[in-house]
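User: Sequence in, structure out. Go.
Assistant: Echoing your sequence, followed by the structure tokens.
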Amino acid sequence: MKYRKKGIKKEHHIIEDGEEILQDLIKKGLVKSIIPGRIKTTPKGQPGNIRLTFQYETNSGAKLLLKKGSTVQEVFVVTSDTERLKDYLSRKYPKS
């Protein structure tokens, strides 16, 4: 497809260091395709570790949030096993 590169749609930017995390989901077979959405930042950006959280299921997969400090990006994924994805994310990025 026009903007795809290794399963990730490249029409929008991705938060710094986020592409590796998203590629990992494809390599592990958890998702078939990734569509990054808008990035929301705050004027007083704060540093922080990158993390990925499950938001909710969609018709074709799920909506995730990619976060780094105070910057947040919506990420939509196509998957047939949302429970497996949710379990993986909760183990890899436990809530503090």
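User: And one key feature?
Assistant: The CA atoms of residues 7 and 62 lie 15 Å apart.
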